[in-house]
Amino acid sequence: MADIIPCIEFFEGIPEELADVSLRLNRSTGIRSVLLVFRALRSIERFRSYTNRFAKALLLTDEEGKISIEPAAIKFIFGGPEGDELERVECRLEIDREDHWERFMRFMHRYAEANGMAYGEAGQ
User: Which residue stretches of 1-124 are H helix?
Assistant: First the structure.
């Protein structure tokens, strides 16, 4: 599966553009939380969600294959003068297994490299 560009999809066939990522570790449970932020969703903008199959999970695809992960929460934040403009979408994932975390991080490194993103500590 070489030469595959990493992508993130809510709906099969509609790649989304990730704006920001936040990683956290709950020290008491060991569960890692990932907050993915999208400034827009192509699947909503194009209204193609009705003609494409809903994945029921977030699909992360790269050269290793596909990761299908069900979000713990998805939050739509609206703003603008009328309060009806989509400002961003926050998608929270929870990963409790070390092997799943390692696979997710390999995907994120590939996604970041392919999309000009860089890792930075909070507050930088």
Answer: 42-45, 98-114
Q: Residue 122: inside a domain, yes or no?
A: no
Mean pLDDT, the chain, whole residue set: 87
Question: What CATH number does the domain containing 16 carry?
Answer: 2.40.30.220
Query: Residues with Cβ < 8 Å from 117, sequence gap 6 or more?
Result: 18, 21, 111
Amino acid (one-letter) located at 114: A
2 alpha carbon, distance to own chain's centre:
21
pTM, two decimal places: 0.80
**101: DSSP letter:** H
Q: Quick: pLDDT tens for 44-68.
A: 776 544 445 555 789 999 999 999 9
Q: Please give the tally of structural domains in the chain.
A: 1
pLDDT in tens, 9-44: 988 888 999 999 999 999 999 999 999 999 998 887
Q: Which domain holds residue 48?
A: 7-114
No. of helices (H) and no. of strands (E), the chain: 2, 8
Give the span between the Cα atoms of 23 and 15, in whole angstroms: 22
